[in-house]
Amino acid sequence: MEIDDFIKAIEEEFDNLNPGDVSPNSVFRDMEGWSSMHALIFVALIDSKYDVLLNGEELKSCVTINDLFDITCLKLNGGAAKA
Amino acid sequence: MAQLRLKHTAVKAIYSVIPKMVYKTHDYPYFSEDEAKMFANTTGIIERRVAATNVTASDMCFKAAQTLLEDMNCHHEIDLLVFVTQSPDYFLPASAAILQDKLGLPKTCMAFDVNLGCSGYVHGLLLANRYLQQGGLRKVLLLAGDKSTISTHEQDKTAFPLFGDAGSATLLEYDAKGKDWFFDAGTDGSGANAIIIEAGHSRMPYQSFDDQDIELAPGVVRSKKHLAIDGMAVFNFALKNVPKSINNVLDLAKIRTEQLDYLVLHQANQLITDSIRKKMNLPKEKCPSSIGNFGNTSSASIPLTLCSELSEALKKERLFLLLCGFGVGFSWASLLLSTHNVATKLLEYD
What we know:
By secondary structure, chain A is an all-alpha fold. In chain A, about 55% of the residues lie in helices and about 0% in strands. Chain A has helices spanning about 5-15, 35-50, 55-60, 65-75. Chain B has helices at about 35-45, 55-70, 95-100, 120-130, 230-255, 270-280, 290-295, 300-310, 310-315, and strands at about 5, 10-20, 20-25, 45-50, 80-85, 110-115, 140-145, 165-175, 180-185, 195, 215, 220, 225-230, 260-265, 320-325, 330-340, 345-350. In chain B, the strands form five sheets. A six-stranded mixed β-sheet of chain B has the order 6-5-7-8-2-17, with helices on both faces. A five-stranded mixed β-sheet of chain B has the order 1-9-16-15-14, with helices on both faces. In chain B, a hairpin with a 3-residue loop joins β15 (about 320-325) and β16 (about 330-340). In chain B, α5 (about 230-255) packs parallel to α6.
């Protein structure tokens, strides 16, 4: 699992994002018009792509895309993330 | 473990009733244009039906039942009426008793309410089967409906645009030659606060709380008497439990997913139903959706989807259906059943 694929999946999911808009250090709650609906979309995307279900508390603990990627990797197989 | 093999029951008719009044997502005044677009794309809800102030869930179910009983001409054969709702007419008596009288059912007919929401229709089908299976009762009338819009605050973006109102009536009878059904259910009360109306009953009587609207977050205004929903908790609950329950039923019946004609899920929102469908490896056409036109109609969403999306197939074909209701409680129930020659109607409440 590579962070570039993770970012690409996020950029493809949202209509208002273009390739290159998101970096590992992007704060996802700073996305334009961020709402609880965005949070649900993130969780559904990660579940569908990686079969990892993040709960509300886990999402709250994340600030950047890299945080999201790390926690997904950890839940996926206990393995370390490749940044 | 709540898993059962059920015998000797046939579904004869399913009628659903929706209010005439249409609320469109794009007209919701508390959404910006972008928010409305994102809400519609994510939940799938383009519009929903909202009952008039003086119309209750029991009124919509009454219309469905009255039309069904007239068409089937079987008033005198109904031995049990079950009304699944979380929006009854009164604290007491049970709305089922009022409906027994309004529908002109015999006084020898049992009648009771079941306080379940999104999982309630499937639990209601199980109850009907348990009473019919021994051959003692002739016919059961299962009513399932809710007026959820009475509980949501207009300025709560997380709840108000999500729910619609609807009622339904399903006629079941003893069938000695009917194919076996298979059932699985469960409960996780640790999720009780995820969908809740806190005030009004005995834990928090009306006279004991300050009935003030509070802005809990931008665009989330409500008081304790309004319905509160935690979308993330519901999503997590559904994805953890629903695919497992569906697989339990398939294992019990010893069949594969691809042998199903349709998987009919409670219409919670499109993001949840799509995620479940993908986990079950089913194509879109095998998982009918009605949420775009009606929103989340709680206990009525499965019968409403059957009437609006599968009407012709239910009438003409032998179907192998898996129904799964899940939500408030948390509570869930899955049922695999065979149907043949089921009469359906979708009516509007004037």
